[in-house]
Amino acid sequence: MKTKMLTSAIALTALSVTAAAARDQVQVAGSSTVLPYATIVAEAFGENTDFPTPVVESGGSSAGLKKFCEGVGEGTIDVANSSRPIREKEIAACAEAGVTDILEVRIGYDGIVFASDINGNSFEFTPADWYKAMAAEVVVDGAIVANPYTMWNEVNPALPAQEIIAFVPGTKHGTREVFEEKVVIAGCEETGAAAVLDAQRGDHKACNALRTDGRAVDIDGDYTETLARIESNKNGIGVFGLSFYENNTDKLQVATMGGVVPSTESISTGEYPVSRPLFFYVKTAHIGVIPGLKEYAEFFVSDDMAGPDGPLAAYGLVSDPALADTQAAVSGSGM
Questions:
Q1: In sequence order, which ranges of 203-318 are alpha helices (DSSP H)?
Q2: Is 135 exposed, middle or buried (0-12, 13-18, 19+ CB in 10 A)?
Q3: What pLDDT, on the 0 to 100 scale, is given for residue 65?
Q4: Shared-domain flag, residues 94 and 126
């Protein structure tokens, strides 16, 4: 089964742009999760059209959208990849810089998985386990205390007696936001800690404040850095996108979450609890000015690329049963 995805134009008022000077390559930056999909598309686009291969860079969703919102013209990027929706404050920053017409394209869904060394212990997690392991403060016997846990079996006796070391996406990554909302905060609520924080402090913002004692390690690079950390510390558990894990099953084993094994099928049905949509954003003012920009966007969401039998699905993207709607929205942009 496949999960429906959505493509929509974000209609922004008061269109006021400076025409982008001609440039012969489409420029893309953003999410490390979307990076492999965009790279596959860019290479195929260069091989199968008369346009040059687009330049695709990573750096994280927030960093990509920041570059996207710097303005209009050949010195600014054309497309921002993101593993989360663009925020209102980012739309405002774009508008202030003259980027006042943005096309949002939701390309499909990915899952966030928790993986460890293939030869190590296996894990069956719940969000509560990750809250208790990662939070700077937890609730013990009704009191809010600094996180005392150093072993996974202290968090949950059913888990292995293994030191808590987790490599989590840094704050500039879209994956971090989903990790906090769907895992850490969900676990905080599941344990009842959120209610205690609300009662004693007036809110539960502390739910997603991660510990800083070296057991929760921010990774500002891409998933290859997380994998390298696990290879050098076999007790480490990393937070990855499903597609990265599926392409490294010779090195990693994946944990269940809430009793569900992450897979394309369990994500598409909504059974796996930690999934998220993936996007790219197009600077509409550059369509018709930067050669190949609209063609790249159309190529990305074509049946041959994003369809259920295309290379993106083979790499782990959950395709869209309503892909024709996406294609129509992209084709009608910038006209």
A1: 223-232, 242-246, 264-268, 293-300, 303-306, 311-315
A2: buried
A3: 97
A4: no
Looking at 239, 257, 275, the residue that finishes a domain is 275
pLDDT at 171: 86
Residue with tokens 């050669």: 291
Local structure of residue 3 (DSSP, 8 states): -
Residues 221 and 319 in one domain: no
Q: Please state, in angstroms and as integers, the Cα–Cα distance from residue 240 to each residue in 80, 112, 244, 250, 281, following that order.
A: 20, 6, 7, 15, 23
* Pair (123, 102) in one structural domain: no
Q: By three-state DSSP, how is residue 167 classified?
A: strand
- The stretches in the chain having pLDDT less than 70 are 1-22, 334-335
State residue 305's pLDDT score.
95
pLDDT digits (tens, 9 = 90+) for 103-148: 999 898 888 999 999 999 999 999 999 999 999 999 999 999 999 9
pLDDT of residue 33: 87
Q: Is residue 2 part of a domain?
A: no
Q: Which CATH number do you get for residue 270?
A: 3.40.190.10
Domain of residue 42: give its range. Answer: 7-109+276-331
Structure token pair of residue 123? 């894990």
The size of the chain, in residues, is: 335
Backbone φ and ψ for 204, nearest 5 degrees, come out as: -120, 35
Q: Is residue 50 part of a domain?
A: yes
Report the distance separating Cα 280 and Cα 255, nearest Å.
29
Nearest-angstrom CA–CA distance, 263 and 256: 10
89-116 b/e with 16+ CB inside 10 Å = b? Answer: ebbebbbeebbbbbbbbbbbbbbbbbbb
* 168 shares its domain with 314: no
Residues 184-213 have pLDDT tens digits of: 999 999 999 999 998 888 877 789 899 999
**For residue 332, what pLDDT is reported?**
87
